[in-house]
Amino acid sequence: MAKARGRVIFEEDLCKGCGLCVSVCPTKIISLDNSTINAKGYHPAIVIEMDKCIGCANCAMMCPDVVITVERY
After folding, report:
1. What pLDDT digit, counting tens, does each position of 18-72 carry?
2. DSSP state letter for 72
3. Is residue 41 part of a domain?
4. Is 37 in contact with 45 (CB distance < 8 Å)?
5. Residue 73 included in any domain
6. CATH number, position 57
7. Is 69 exposed, middle or buried, given 0-12, 13-18 or 19+ CB atoms closer than 10 A?
């Protein structure tokens, strides 16, 4: 059985850096970007190893501001 693959897209300027998506990612590929500040003044979440995304959408379901889109292929 082939492993599901996915792609995560963040609306970085709307992210408030709460870290909930980081805490629920089973592959631990999401982190807060401490080198960037977005339009709202927060450190946005980023994906550090997109090729390891399994497309589970846990991050999108957990995001209180609905700024994450997950595409599966």
Report:
1. 999 999 999 999 999 999 999 999 999 999 999 999 999 999 999 999 999 999 9
2. E
3. yes
4. no
5. no
6. 3.30.70.3270
7. middle
- Asked if 29 contacts 55 with a C-beta cutoff of 8 angstroms, the reply is no
Q: How far apart are CA 45 and CA 60, in angstroms?
A: 12
Read off the pTM: 0.88
Nearest to 48 by CA among 63, 67, 28: 28
Domain that holds residue 28: 6-67
- Does residue 72 fall inside a structural domain? no
What's the number of domains the chain is made of? 1
Contact by Cβ (8 Å): 14, 40 = yes
